[in-house]
């Protein structure tokens, strides 16, 4: 071993020891080395969960000082694609950037003319959710067409897709799997196949969620293979969310299923051409596909003639799209690779934490409405679900525990949120609520009424905006933290139920 390697190894050994001492509170909730939670202290709704290996990976990559996306990034792209079972994954600097790259890729002149999204074409989406699922549609000059959301699942009312369709104008569907609950992929895929539309899955909240359907239905939609590591027997096809559409997106911001700090990914499910154009939009719009620091992969660097450039103009400086620079850094990817190894346990922790909260709050179903997975009709006390007659099922690795306050409840959603805040329990609204009520969309409508349209009423989206919040399910929660949340909410519900009704 060289003196230099020995020095690096010693730095990383000390780094690991530092992390064990300094960051014990950020270890997984079931880790015996995690700092115990102190009653009365803050319970975040989400946060980064890591141990010394992530810190050592970041320091090690920084010592190598290849800062821009490099070997760690390439390895993580390969590992993420392998986990999901997709053709390619492209790392970007955020989930929002992933959505921008995904929808931008579908505007490329390199795609079939009849499928290319042009200014004024329409993309169907859902009104309730996070704004950067929708903003890229507007930013590329397309028109979002909104369908309503279901307050129980938090997802799009996919029965309204036909209402949103406009012959010759509709080119794609782009929606999120809300809070780690898959939207109705059976109905959505059948709709997209019927009209030859792109499907973009915003999978930012849903890495590690799966969706299954009877094999006969799956094969009629073009699917016969399970995702890696998933199997529900010969009569069913089960795949991770993010692998059913043409493109999907991930976020690796700290609250999500794994983290790179900032970061995200675009997954190319099948079509190699989509990889080429998505990568171009991510990387300045350039035509060249050589990674940074590599030249002449095509062996034609000075032989191309594109646009109105002279023949032989350097392919490294030829631009076929109006692109961006949305790459993350290699040390971020080094962190992400360690997090990928934790992903299976993180997925299971989120499922278990949701079930713990659901069981603990079951006695308050008279005043609180709880989420159900898509296609579920009821939750059972043993943690199982009753299912509808479609034959489709969803398995949720929940991003959050959604609670709605029923109209007949003696308190409001805001009352409950204030009580949670008073007890330092992290909680959030369902992101932007009904996005059409947000200042940005109110102003957009005033400036350009034609910039978006509604396919139906937005009663469900308004209901979620007014009555819903969510708690955390992230894998840093301990059993005592979940118990404290249950105690605070139960006590609050009981006090409100016992309080005399206001006079008059």
State the distance separating the first and last CA atoms. 84 Å
* Annotation field: number of helices: 14
CATH fold name of the largest domain, please? Aspartate Aminotransferase, domain 2
| Uncertain runs | none
Strand content: 5-15%
Our count of domains comes out at 2
**Overall average pLDDT:** 96
Overall CATH class of the largest domain: Alpha Beta
Total E-strand runs? 17
Shape: globular
Rounded to the nearest angstrom, the radius of gyration is 24 Å
Give the biggest sheet.
8 strands, mixed
CATH architecture of the largest domain: 3-Layer(aba) Sandwich
Structural class from helices and strands? alpha/beta
Identify the strand order in the major beta sheet.
Answer: 1-9-8-5-4-2-3-16
> Level of helix content?
25-40%
**CATH superfamily name of the largest domain?**
Type I PLP-dependent aspartate aminotransferase-like (Major domain)
Describe the 3D structure.
By secondary structure, the chain is α/β, with parallel strands linked by helices. The protein has two domains: 71-317, Type I PLP-dependent aspartate aminotransferase-like (Major domain) (Aspartate Aminotransferase, domain 2); 343-496, Aspartate Aminotransferase, domain 1 (Alpha-Beta Complex). It has helices at 3-22, 52-64, 71-84, 95-105, 131-139, 161-164, 185-195, 215-220, 272-282, 330-360, 413-422, 439-447, 459-467, 479-498, and strands spanning 88-92, 122-126, 143-147, 170-176, 198-202, 210-214, 236-240, 247-251, 264-268, 368-370, 376-379, 385-387, 393-395, 400-405, 428-429, 453-454, 468-472. The strands form four sheets. Strands 1-9-8-5-4-2-3-16 form an eight-stranded mixed β-sheet, sandwiched between helices. The chain has a four-stranded antiparallel β-sheet with strand order 10-14-17-15. A three-stranded antiparallel β-sheet has the order 7-6-13. Helix 4 packs parallel to helix 5 (131-139) and helix 10 (330-360) crosses helix 14. The longest helix has 31 residues, at 330-360. It is globular and about 85 Å long. The termini are far apart. The mean pLDDT is 96.
């Amino acid at each position: 071993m060289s003196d230099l390697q020995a020095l690096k190894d010693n730095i990383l050994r000390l780094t690991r020891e530092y992390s064990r001492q300094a960051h014990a509170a950020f270890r997984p909730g079931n880790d015996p080395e995690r700092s115990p939670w102190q009653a009365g202290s803050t319970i975040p709704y989400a946060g980064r969960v890591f141990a010394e290996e992530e810190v050592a990976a970041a320091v090690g990559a920084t010592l190598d000082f290849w800062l821009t996306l490099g070997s760690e990034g390439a390895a993580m792209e390969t590992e993420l694609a392998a986990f999901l079972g997709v053709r390619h994954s492209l790392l970007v600097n955020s989930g929002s950037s992933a959505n921008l790259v995904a929808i931008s890729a579908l505007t490329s002149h390199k795609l079939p003319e009849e499928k290319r999204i042009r200014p004024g074409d329409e993309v169907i989406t859902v009104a309730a959710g996070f704004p950067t699922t929708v903003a890229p549609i507007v930013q590329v000059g397309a028109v979002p067409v909104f369908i309503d959301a279901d307050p129980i699942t938090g997802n799009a009312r996919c029965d309204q897709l036909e209402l949103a369709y406009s012959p010759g104008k509709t080119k794609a569907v782009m929606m999120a799997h809300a809070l780690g609950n898959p939207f109705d992929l059976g109905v959505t895929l059948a709709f997209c196949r019927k009209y030859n539309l792109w499907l973009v899955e915003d999978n930012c909240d849903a890495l590690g969620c799966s969706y299954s359907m009877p094999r006969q239905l799956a094969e009629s939609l073009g699917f016969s293979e399970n995702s890696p590591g998933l199997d529900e027997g010969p009569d069913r096809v089960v795949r991770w969310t993010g692998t059913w559409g043409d493109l999907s997106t991930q976020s690796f911001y700290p609250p999500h299923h794994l983290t790179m700090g900032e970061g995200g990914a675009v997954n190319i499910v099948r079509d190699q051409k989509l990889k080429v154009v998505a990568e171009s939009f991510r990387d300045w719009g350039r035509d060249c596909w050589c990674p940074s620091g590599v030249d002449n992969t095509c062996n034609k660097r000075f032989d191309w003639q594109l646009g109105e450039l002279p023949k032989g103009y350097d392919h490294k400086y030829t631009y076929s799209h109006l692109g961006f620079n949305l790459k993350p850094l290699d040390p971020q990817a080094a962190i992400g690779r360690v997090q990928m190894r934790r992903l299976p346990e993180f997925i299971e922790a989120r499922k278990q934490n949701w079930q713990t909260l659901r069981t603990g709050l079951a006695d308050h179903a008279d005043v609180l409405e709880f989420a159900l997975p898509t296609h579920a009709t009821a939750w059972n006390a043993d943690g199982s679900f009753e299912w509808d007659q479609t034959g489709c099922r969803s398995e949720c690795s929940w991003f959050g525990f959604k609670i709605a306050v029923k109209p007949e409840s003696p308190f409001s959603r805001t009352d409950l949120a204030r009580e949670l805040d008073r007890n330092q329990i992290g909680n959030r609204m369902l992101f932007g609520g009904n996005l059409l009520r947000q200042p940005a969309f109110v102003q957009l409508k005033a400036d350009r009424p034609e910039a978006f349209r509604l396919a139906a009423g937005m009663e469900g989206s308004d209901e979620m905006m007014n009555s819903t919040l969510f708690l955390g399910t992230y894998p840093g929660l301990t059993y005592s933290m979940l118990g404290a949340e249950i105690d605070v909410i139960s006590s609050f519900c009981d006090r409100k139920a016992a309080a005399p009704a206001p006079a008059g």
